[in-house]
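Allow me, if you will, to draw on your knowledge of protein folds for a short while. I have a record of one protein: its chain in single-letter code and its fold written as discrete structure tokens. Could you please explain, in whatever detail you think fit, how the structure tokens follow from the sequence? The record follows directly beneath this note:
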Amino acid sequence: MKITLFIPCFVDQLAPTVGISMVRIFEKLGHGVDFDASLICCGQPAFNAGCWNEARKVAARVVERLQDAETVVVPSGSCSTMIRVFYPELCQGHPEQDAALALANKTYEFSEFLVDRLGVTDLGSRFPAKVTFRDGCHGLRELHLKQQPRQLLKYVKELTLVEMEDQTSCCGFGGTFAVKFPMISTAMGEAKCASALTTGADFLVSNDSSCLMHLQGLFARRMLKLKTIHLAQILASF
């Protein structure tokens, strides 16, 4: 099939390797990949800040540009949730209402698409390291994604997954939350870092580069060796 990628702004600007990894994976599986470089934000920052009119303008443009896509895949539980769950709510009663619902119905988070849509779990990946997995809040609570990334990690050769005792608490980023409440955000992030460190892992893995960016900053400031990496980067190691 023809897969259209929606690359979130923070991936585009700060973690482009995540998008490149997705392209490598889908091309290996024999699928065509498309990407509209003019779409750089899903509108979530404005939406979360309560600026719904501004967020709707961004959403309307995304809906219009992706209306002909066969399927849309997003390397972020957060941005997938924005399109899948919040676009229909945001656009209800507006001209783009039906198109927003149609887009929501063909949009998938990356690990969800591989496992649930394509039926793929083993990509022949190899990543010799001990890792722990961080569940993003939107992916876990809104999209109900938990087993899909773990199923994919299970088949990565030489990889050992060690679960954190605290799997469900927020990392403290929350987009605009980290800007509005930096002290609370930092405290939450440090608690998540401590939980990850107790596993003895070499890498902290997630589906969300925003969470990884937040936690990597905390690790770096404390000069800790634990590194963060997106699931797509591990799966593209073949």
